[in-house]
Structures are given as C-alpha cells and as structure tokens.
Amino acid sequence: METANSLPEAPRILVIEDQELNRKVVRIVLQSKGYTVVEATDAVEALANLAAVTPNLILMDIALPGQSGEDLARQIKSELKWADIPIIALTAAAMSGDKERILEAGCDDYLSKPIDIQVLVGCVEAHLKGAAK
After folding, report:
1. Total H helices, total E strands in the chain
2. Which of 7, 16, 35, 89 has its CA 20 to 30 A from that of 50?
3. Buried b (16+ CB within 10 A) or exposed e, 79-89
C-alpha cells in the first residue's frame, strides 16, 4: 500500500561480476546514488536473480566463470520478459573489434576497465532514462 509519504521504488541494478573488489566498488557507488543493487558472481546466479527480481538495468562483466558474458547477454536478450533490460558490459577487453563483438552479443553499451566511476554513473543514468521512455 502506498502512503503519501512513500517514495518511489529505487531502480534495481543487477551487477554480474566475479571479482569481489569490483562488485564492492560498483555497489558502493550505485548505492550512494540511491540505486538498489543485486549481485551475482556467475551466469547461474545471474539467471536466478533475474527470475526472482527483474532489474531495471544490468551491469555485466564479460569474463565470467563458466559461461561468458557475451553468451549470457544473448540468453537474456532472447527472453521476451528480459529483452528490454539494458545491459552495460564491463570488461578489460579493449582490443580492436571487442566492443563491436560485445554489442552484437546484445549488450547495449560497453565500458572498459578500469572503470571510471563518473563515466559509469553517467552511463547508468542515461540508460535508465532511456528505458523509462
């Protein structure tokens, strides 16, 4: 039940990253901006979280254990209920052709590591505004 004093629900961001330090930095930054952060360390955990709580945006490392982020992006985008969720790839892959390959896999944007915090926040805000249209 909504009351006059209730605030709108904070956007939920699913962070899929196997490195604990990277998850922690992203979590602290996003929570400081008022976002709700849900975390996963691999594709299996990510899919379970997606099924339980549909996020407004996904931040995903491309080099995940087990299943690559590219394959996971294809899998997420193939599901009608998740197809419109923006996926921002976070990756150290910065070779020629990497960005194009990652975007072709279904990611909506690409940020190279190490992540610039201000660029990350700007990218998240831009995609959340775009998704709200």
Report:
1. 5, 5
2. 7
3. eeebeebbbbb
User: How far is residue 62's CA from residue 107's CA, in Å, rounded to a whole number?
Assistant: 10
* CA gap 125, 33 in Å, rounded: 10
Residues found in the chain: 133
**CA-wise closest residue to 109 among 86, 132, 82, 88:** 88
CA distance 111 to 26: 13
Task: Delineate the domains of the chain, giving CATH numbers in brackets.
Answer: 12-116 (3.40.50.2300)
Residue position matching structure tokens 């400081």: 32
Q: Using CA atoms, how far apart are residues 122 and 6, in angstroms rounded to an integer?
A: 26
3-state DSSP assignment of residue 74? helix
The C-alpha atoms of residue 72 and residue 119 are separated, in whole angstroms, by 24
